[in-house]
Write a structure and sequence with these properties.
Layout: H1 9-16, H2 21-30, H3 32-37, H4 39-43, H5 55-64, E1 71-74, H6 80-86, E2 96-100, H7 107-122, E3 129-136, H8 151-155, E4 165-172, H9 178-185, E5 190-197, H10 208-221, E6 237-241, H11 248-254, E7 264-268, H12 277-285, E8 315-319, H13 328-336, E9 343-345, H14 353-362, E10 369-372, H15 380-390, E11 396-403, H16 404-410, E12 422-428, H17 439-448, H18 452-474, E13 482-484, E14 522-525, H19 533-542, E15 548-557, E16 560-565, H20 570-578, H21 602-616, H22 629-635
Parallel strand pairs: 1-2, 2-3, 3-4, 4-5, 5-6, 6-7, 7-8, 8-9, 10-11, 11-12, 12-13, 13-14, 14-15
Antiparallel strand pairs: 15-16
Helix pairs in contact: 5-6, 6-7, 13-14, 14-15, 16-18, 21-22
Pfam families: F-box-like
Domain F-box: 1-46
InterPro entries: F-box-like_dom_sf, F-box_dom, LRR_dom_sf
Length: 642
């Protein structure tokens, strides 16, 4: 760092663009030249919620550096002196704003509402993205004396022409606020509605009688059918998660169908809602065979379309349609009717070779996500490995099960290793008898070995070799952020039969090869893991961005297996929690404090590990770039900060 003081500010600024906020803060703290050269970059990434306990000194610094602020997260939980002061300044570079709860209740909330209103009004011409959380708006006009501010009505002002992204997460949109909402939507490019309740007006959900009347009048006047007016002419991304009217047909016709420029769709219907599969396929493909006139009792007009409703739609996620599964034929029709598909995420009744082959070969150069985790039947993992070898743009892949031996064989041909950010699959380690390369050796051993322990030792050796090879391949995914080695939902009983064959989270099994995966934020493991202080210390040191370590353990209830929460020693879970790593579902006996908090004897650990490895005879080429267990432990002796 001493040499870096001689670098010009321009070079420091360019280097700082490749660093995250934590790295920038570290450099600025230890080096004066870096503090000056990266000040603009650092403050452009700071959020108001990060300065919650700073007091008046922090508020003064925030005001001084306000000219560089690009993102604000503004919520009522901040210190009063700070949250009131934030609204007094105009931020010339503010582009992204998040507001929590915009409903006045007491005097403090009135001041908070006033600050929110000031921030929005002073940044009308430059605000590009707005996120509203827990939005509660009154259905009636507020009485005199009560503080009230509607962000939707304020955003509908023509001076808010720069707004392109709107996210509403939790809340209710009363009918009196809907005209402002529709006016805002006319210029949006990204819209997210998550758990937002609102009803469509009768103008957007016409009855059959009004539709017939409008068609008759339009035929006389030549005017366009007003019931089919485009509400989202510029919208490219739509995320509709359990929001809008309760009727999913109304969601499809009143919202999704009115987005002609849609590129990305994520639609999650309510759990009790009917899902119109045939209607969705008809709008997407314009296939007359799937035209469904609808149920007159719904009072929703379902006209037949002659062309594709969304000609540019290339990323589709339709979730939570519960008992309504897409058949293989329907899935085949969807992937065949689109060019340049990036993602097709929906539950299917199965997966046949022809469907998987069409998806991979037809869209190999554009496919970015493959979601086969809930696909019924077998064969998904084999085709997923083929996709990893043919689709260079993949960033997310998932399936229920993946054979370790198949992964090792196909790994050298993978073409998307450096791009992958999410990998979800339960990797099953083979039993000794299932390895074709060891069949002859196993047969010979069974004939000449009398003791069963020696055969088990050989099986354990083969399992360890497989684990080292699998971890060596996973280590190449250095950009990975999510590594989920569970089969599906850890709380279900579907995963019971193979829990003992899952990948072990053990340094002696090759986990140490993942030391370069510094971007990891979530790690999920399958089955019971006998992790020790050694593994926990290693994770804390090398996975510096890890936020969650989650897994499950098989417990027995009589003759029935139950997949319950993971059971860790109190000390291990406590150590992870103290370092900001969540361990959801971890359980341990109450008042248990039998964990040894002393610093481990690393020299003894290294010596024991070497002897164990020499006795097992594991190959030396499973380590990657010299980052095996012994090199890693002897490079830097560290103690965990408790």
């Amino acid at each position: 760092m001493a040499r870096s003081q001689d670098l010009p500010f321009e070079i420091i600024y360019l280097i700082g663009e490749y660093l995250d906020r934590r790295q920038l803060a570290t450099c600025a703290f230890v080096c004066k030249s870096w503090n000056t050269g990266t000040e603009e970059l650092l403050w452009s990434r700071i959020k108001a919620s990060d300065l919650r306990r700073g007091g008046q000194a922090t508020v003064d610094a925030f005001r001084t550096k306000g000219r560089w602020i690009r993102s604000l997260v503004y919520d009522e939980s901040q210190e009063s002196v700070q949250r009131f002061a934030l609204g007094e300044r105009r931020y010339p570079r503010l582009r992204f704003l998040t507001i929590h709860k915009a409903l006045a209740v007491d005097s403090l909330d009135r001041e908070y509402i006033k600050s929110c209103k000031d921030i929005v009004q002073k940044n009308r011409g430059r605000l590009e993205s707005l996120t509203l959380r827990d939005l509660i708006l009154p259905d009636t006009k507020p009485s005199s004396g009560n503080a009230h501010w509607s962000p939707l009505m304020s955003l509908a002002h023509p001076t808010h022409a720069a707004l392109r992204t709107l996210r509403i997460i939790g809340g209710t949109l009363p009918s009196r606020h809907m005209p402002s909402f529709w006016q805002i939507c006319e210029r949006l490019e990204v819209l997210e509605l998550t758990n937002v309740d609102f009803e469509l007006s009768r103008a957007m959900v016409p009855t059959y009688r009004s539709l017939a009347k409008n068609q008759y009048l339009n035929s006389l006047s030549g005017k366009r059918d007003q019931d089919r007016a485009v509400r989202f002419p510029k919208l490219r991304e739509l995320r509709l998660v359990e929001s809008g009217p309760r009727n999913s047909v109304a969601q499809l016709e009143g919202i999704i169908r009115r987005c002609p420029e849609l590129r990305t769709l994520e639609w999650c219907v309510r759990s009790y809602s009917f899902f119109p599969i045939r209607r969705f396929i008809h709008l997407f493909t314009a296939d007359p065979n799937y035209y469904w006139p609808g149920d007159p009792s719904h009072s929703i007009s379902l006209t037949q379309c002659t062309s594709k409703t969304w000609p540019h739609l290339t990323s589709i996620s339709v979730l939570n349609h519960y008992g309504y599964l897409f058949t293989v034929e329907e899935y085949q029709l969807l992937i065949s009717s689109v060019q340049g598909l990036r993602n097709m995420h929906m539950r299917m009744t199965g997966l046949i070779d022809m469907t998987a082959k069409t998806l991979i070969t037809r869209h190999s150069h554009t496919l970015r996500e493959i979601h086969w985790r809930h696909v019924a039947g077998t064969g998904a993992s084999t085709w997923l490995l083929i996709a990893l070898s043919l689709c260079p743009m993949l960033t997310k892949v998932e399936c229920m099960l993946m054979n370790a031996q198949e992964l090792i064989v196909s790994a050298p041909t993978w073409v998307c290793t450096t791009r992958l950010k999410e990998f979800r699959a339960c990797i099953i380690v083979n039993d000794l008898a299932e390895l074709s390369s060891r069949d002859a050796q196993v047969a010979g051993l069974k004939g000449r070995i009398d003791e069963e322990d020696e055969l088990k030792a050989l099986a354990e050796q083969v399992k360890t070799e497989q684990c080292w090879a699998v971890y060596a391949q996973l280590a190449k995914m250095r950009a990975l952020q999510i590594l989920d080695m569970t089969s599906s939902d850890a709380s279900t009983g579907v995963t019971n039969w193979y829990h003992n064959r899952a990948m072990p989270l053990s340094l002696s099994s090759g986990l140490c090869q993942l030391s370069d995966m510094t971007e990891l934020k979530y790690v999920g493991f399958q089955g019971h893991q006998n992790m020790t202080r050694l593994e926990i210390d290693w994770m804390i040191k090398h996975w510096t961005r890890l936020e969650t370590l989650e897994g499950g353990k098989m417990t027995t209830n009589g003759s029935r297996f139950m997949n319950g929460a993971n059971y860790w020693d109190a000390g291990l879970a406590r150590m992870l929690n103290r370092h900001g790593i969540k361990t959801p579902g971890s359980q341990y006996p109450a008042h248990y404090d039998a964990f040894d908090w002393t610093v481990p004897d690393w020299e003894q650990i290294i010596e024991v590990a070497r002897k164990e490895r020499d006795m097992m005879g594991a190959p030396d080429d499973y380590g990657q770039d010299g980052s095996d267990l012994y090199t890693l432990l002897s490079e830097d002796i560290f103690s965990c900060e408790l």
